[in-house]
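=== Given protein ===
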Amino acid sequence: MALTATGVHDVAEAVLGCVCAALDQVAEEVPGQPGCPCRVCVVPGQVAWDGCDGACGPSKPGGQLSVSVARMWPTTSFPTEDREVRGLRGCSLPATTAVELVVTLLRCAPGPGASGCPPSCEELTDSARILHTDMATLQNAIMCCLPQTAPTRRGRRFVLGAQRVLGPEGGCVGVEQRVTVAMPGCAPCPGEEGQI
């Protein structure tokens, strides 16, 4: 069976929503922790570092939360890439497609003051605390929410990759989390819609 036309985008949107909700929840529980940034989007390709120039208003912190697709591949033993030769008999798709999502959370980084002096240790420590809290929140959000985004009761299979810290650069500092999601084929091959 083939992937549904919007299946990959739907999973990216679901992950984005899960992480944003978790960031807002943690902001209510941890004093001084900002919630979900004002820029929240699924983006095509690599993430542009936007939104690190300050707050977006009185209720939303600056920064950016985004989800993008890094790559996808067929797999018969998730998440291993399938090297089977295809195309010998019509639409011979694998049962599962692996999709690697990249979740990127960027916050405003402390920079030099008006006189050109570096940020204080207190500012750096506060930024580090926010970053470390974001790292735990991102991982927890994906681990707890992603299984529930499956269209079936069995849950969604995924492999959580390593996180890496981004920046500080260009006024931004943040974290990138990769997750590989199993996308079962559940649509007929093109041209086979009416066939049994």
Summary: Residues 7-184 form one domain. The CA atoms of residues 55 and 62 lie 4 Å apart.
